[in-house]
User: Which sequence fits this backbone?
């Protein structure tokens, strides 16, 4: 495993998303379970194009998450600008084979700490479909608070916020 990583947790390695991740990351975009609450499946060519844009996005942080013991690809976490505002948004996608094992919590928690301690971000927003109960529960476990519910993308969205100053 490449030792050039950004964040290491007990079980995960988080590195900036790279061309080496594309073949495995495409699986996130073509999986019905992953994309159920993210607007639906995306064709492979469109997924590759999106991933290439993410790799070169200078104003956002896109991280691949891999299991430390095997190097297996688990998902992507990103910090980017939230819908035309100055706030940063936390987003994530994990493969279904990684669900329910705590990898998402562990990796996202470490990204939140990185945002607070290294990037000096004071406030994070995370928006998810209200019917995505698992994601809502994960955000609550990570100490995000439900701020609002709005209708966007044809369905009700729950908007969660986390004040990183309260964590210091």
Assistant:
């Amino acid at each position: 495993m490449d030792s050039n990583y950004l964040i290491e947790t007990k079980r995960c390695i988080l590195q900036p998303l790279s061309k080496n991740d594309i073949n495995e990351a495409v699986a996130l975009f073509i999986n019905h379970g992953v994309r159920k609450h993210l607007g639906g499946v995306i064709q492979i060519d469109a997924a590759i194009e999106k991933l290439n844009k993410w790799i070169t996005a200078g104003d956002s942080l896109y991280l691949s998450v891999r299991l430390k013991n095997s190097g297996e690809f688990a998902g992507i976490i990103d910090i980017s600008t939230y819908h035309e505002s100055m706030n940063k948004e936390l987003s994530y996608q994990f493969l279904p084979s990684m669900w329910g094992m705590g990898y998402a919590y562990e990796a996202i928690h470490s990204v939140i700490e990185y945002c607070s301690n290294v990037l000096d971000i004071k406030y994070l927003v995370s928006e998810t479909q209200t019917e995505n109960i698992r994601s809502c529960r994960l955000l609550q476990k990570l100490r995000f608070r439900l701020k609002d519910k709005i209708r966007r993308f044809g369905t009700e969205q729950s908007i969660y916020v986390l004040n990183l100053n309260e964590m210091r």
